[in-house]
Design a protein that fits this description.
Length: about 90
């Protein structure tokens, strides 16, 4: 899952939104209004938020789930890179 917290005043943070699918988020990356969640149960979940204004509760308007067995993802430009471990025999 994901909790979105307004920290514009670090002495008074407060939750303004979230996404709970019952899964376990291992890592996340944010690019513009996209949030890439690495979920232990679901794989890669891509959420599109309706706003980046910290005073308005964002809506999650798109959820895309991509199955992936390697939970290490790096987001760069418009690409998602998976790290692959080289195996020696």
């Amino acid at each position: 899952g994901l909790e979105i917290v307004n920290i514009s005043d670090p002495t008074d943070p407060y939750k303004i939104g979230g996404f709970d699918d019952g899964g376990h988020t291992r890592n996340l990356f944010v690019k513009n209004n996209l949030v890439f969640l690495i979920d232990i149960d679901e794989g890669l979940e891509i959420l599109e938020l309706s706003t980046r204004n910290p005073n308005i509760q964002p809506e999650i308007i798109i959820v895309v789930v991509v199955s992936c067995s390697i939970p290490i993802i790096v987001v760069g430009g418009y690409f998602i890179y998976r790290r692959v471990r080289k195996r020696t025999v």
